[in-house]
């Protein structure tokens, strides 16, 4: 009788450990969908940045319908601005109807600033940055499991990123790297991910240990958590 009781307790402890102890996260996976569209997950929280956008808008990258179908339920959607190569109202409405989730951008920026998760150390810093044909554009610095991930979006200037201390992964278009170079400055990032290539843009990468060019849709990288 006593033995069974202990056995039950043992099973309970094992269940408890596998749920809370061994569920320790060792990486953040980032999938490049297209343009500035990224899917990031630590296996628990699902975050989409500048996705869903309008496939093929302004001759930028297209994506398959299955990309929309594969969106995870109850995800967080974060947008830098509302240009169609970054955002699609139609696809977003469809997604929220089917999969729930929450969207953030210029319409609720203070809510986004307050979006935190203490268990995964998730927080987001918001920077109002300039983009010529957009009334409001934001760049973001996500801190997650102690890692700093910068999302530049479409802003023209490297000024904001140059003011930030060491970033683990900086996602920037190629013109931000050129702007920093022209200013005689260096982006302080362990890894720079060049995304949002122009249609037919080719980037020659001379330092693949420091720079990753996102020219293949669907490619995934891992940010390891020590
Ligand atoms: Zn754009």
**Secondary-structure element string:** HEEEHEHEHEEEHEHEEE
Provide the gyration radius in Å.
20 Å
CATH topology: Metallo-beta-lactamase, Chain A
Per CATH, the superfamily is Ribonuclease Z/Hydroxyacylglutathione hydrolase-like
Strand content: 25-35%
Beta-strand segment tally: 12
Alpha carbon gap, first and last residue: 44 Å
Count of DSSP helices?
6
CATH class: Alpha Beta
Strand pairing plus helix content: what structural class?
alpha/beta
What composes the largest sheet?
A: 6 strands, mixed
What ranges have pLDDT less than 50 throughout 5 or more consecutive residues?
Answer: none
Helical content stands at 10-25%
CATH architecture, please? 4-Layer Sandwich
Small molecules held by this entry: zinc ion
Strand order of the largest sheet: 5-4-3-2-1-12
The chain-level mean pLDDT equals 92
* Tally of distinct domains: 1
Shape: globular
What can you tell me about this protein's structure?
- The structure is a single chain.
- The protein has 226 residues and is of the alpha/beta class.
- It has one domain (25-224): Ribonuclease Z/Hydroxyacylglutathione hydrolase-like (Metallo-beta-lactamase, Chain A), CATH 3.60.15.
- The chain is built from six helices and twelve strands.
- The protein has helices at 2-21, 65-69, 89-99, 109-113, 159-163, 174-182; strands spanning 27-34, 37-41, 46-49, 76-78, 102-104, 123-129, 137-144, 147-151, 167-172, 189-194, 211-213, 220-224.
- The strands form two sheets. It has a six-stranded mixed β-sheet with strand order 5-4-3-2-1-12.
- β3, α2 and β4 form a beta-alpha-beta unit.
- The longest helix has 20 residues, at 2-21.
- The radius of gyration is 20 Å and the shape is globular.
- The mean pLDDT is 92.
- The structure holds zinc ion.
- The site of zinc ion (ZN) has 5 residues, from loops.
